[in-house]
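As a warm-up, study this chain.
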Amino acid sequence: MASSPFPSLPAGALVLAAGRGERMRPLTDHCPKPLLPVRGKPLMQWTLEALAAGGVRHVAVNTGWLGEQIESHFGLQPRLDLGLSLSISYSREQQDFGYALETLGGIVRAQPLLDDVFWVAAGDVHAPDFPFAAAERERFAASGRLAHLWLVPNPAHRPQGDFGLGADGLALNRVADPAAPRYTFSTIALYRRELFEPPWCDILPGNPQGIARPLAPLLRAAMDNGRISAALYTGRWTDVGTPERLASLHHTP
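Now compare it with the structure written out below.
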């Protein structure tokens, strides 16, 4: 399914890069969104460099639309700025099935490449300062939670937010107080393999059937059982979902 110069080393992170980027057209008609330039380098490179700066040494990347361009550009050992280095394995959804598997389907498809605890970040989200810290991973691994999400203040395009945040640090699907704030899911999270196995997830390991399924319903079910924690992140963060948002990154420090 995928290859790496270090196949025995499980990936500590998955970068999601399989989307079509419909709202970015025509920019994405001939270029996958993760390769669109942001201040002199591909959008996804900012995520790879942040992971490498946090100590992640092996990353899985799932690809879909024009995924061969992503693989051709970054290869197995991409050249990153500041002397940072990591290796990449690819989960090739378009090549294997002819379509992208959505977030949950893509994570389960990439699962054979991943460690028991792993980061997930989107290749089309710009969060260059996010600290993918080893200490956060270790804290989460010892917590017994199924996932730990980073939430952000709601951007203008998503004023209603996604989830609440309890005083005890739990992510909330339902917020009892209508005046309590809800926040937007940044896409950055730590996950435990257990979340993607029964009884939580009924997709076969490795998703050999190519089931395309969103992640949100699974997260909401686990939240309702008190198994997901969260934290608020207030650093630089942009969901690069439109040409206008992409353009704005060229004018922000």
